[in-house]
From TrEMBL:
Protein name as annotated: LrgB family protein
Superkingdom in the source lineage: Bacteria
Compartment list: Membrane
Record-annotated membrane-spanning stretches: 6-27, 34-53, 59-79, 91-116, 136-157, 178-195, 207-229
InterPro entries: CidB/LrgB (IPR007300)
Keywords recorded for this protein, A-Z: Membrane, Transmembrane, Transmembrane helix
Membrane topology per record: Multi-pass membrane protein
């Protein structure tokens, strides 16, 4: 019975959507950032796999469809850019400056901390693309010789952290300009953070979505250049 269910192509897909919907329901009821839908959903999936002793290969057979859709989803981020094209042209320099500096600092900080904590080079390579969206991150990790599975986990945790802490960090550092808030969220916590930016405001969401694309492309450039520091 278990083999028949787990072997179904749609098993991982159904479990993923089921877990995420529960996460959304919990977040809606609590309105607490710590009960983020992504965090709750991920925890539920991990629990199910562990409790029922289901291999990740069986789960990924169906859930991999979702990962495949991340590519088209990233391309669809052009929609908010199109809607805010005039705003982008007006703030072209801040957007590009934020993307260039943010992607550079994100990589260098991983290298420095990795060295301080004595991490192996392969692990550092795996964490270097943590701040960009998953399709870009997997590509960069593979290119550097990292472990894509670790990269995916680090990207997820980075996004959740950004989603939860973005409003608080903006408040602490008194970042009030909508464009600055959006760029900061997009460059540091990709699509998961952008969902929070869209909750904050349309301009923040648009700038965050725009920053994701540039941060991803720039990381593809920065990562091989900065690899020599490891």
């Amino acid at each position: 019975m278990k083999a028949a269910i787990v072997g179904n192509l749609f098993f991982g897909l159904i479990i993923s959507f089921f877990a995420f919907e529960i996460g959304k329901w919990v977040f809606k009821k609590t309105q607490t950032p710590l009960f983020n839908p992504f965090l709750i959903g991920t925890s539920i999936v991990i629990f199910i796999l562990k409790f029922f002793d289901i291999s990740t290969d069986d789960y990924y057979r169906g859930a991999g469809m979702i990962l495949f859709l991340l590519g088209p989803a990233t391309v669809s981020l052009a929609i908010p850019l199109y809607k805010k094209w005039d705003l982008f042209k007006k703030f072209f320099i801040p957007v590009m400056t934020g993307a260039v500096v943010g992607s550079f600092v994100g990589i260098v900080s991983v290298i420095i901390l990795g060295k301080l904590f004595g991490m192996e080079n392969q692990l550092i390579f795996s964490l270097m693309p943590k701040s960009i969206t998953t399709p870009f991150g997997i590509e960069v990790s593979s290119m550097l010789g990292g472990i894509p599975a670790i990269t995916v986990v680090s990207i997820m945790l980075t996004g959740i952290t950004g989603n939860v802490t973005a409003p608080l960090i903006s408040k602490i550092f008194r970042v009030k300009h909508s464009v600055a808030v959006g760029i900061g969220i997009g460059v540091s916590s990709h699509a998961v953070g952008t969902s929070k930016a869209m909750e904050i405001g349309e301009v923040e969401g648009s700038m965050s979505a725009l920053s994701i694309v540039f941060a991803g492309l720039l990381t593809l450039v920065w990562a091989p250049i900065l690899k020599f520091l490891v």
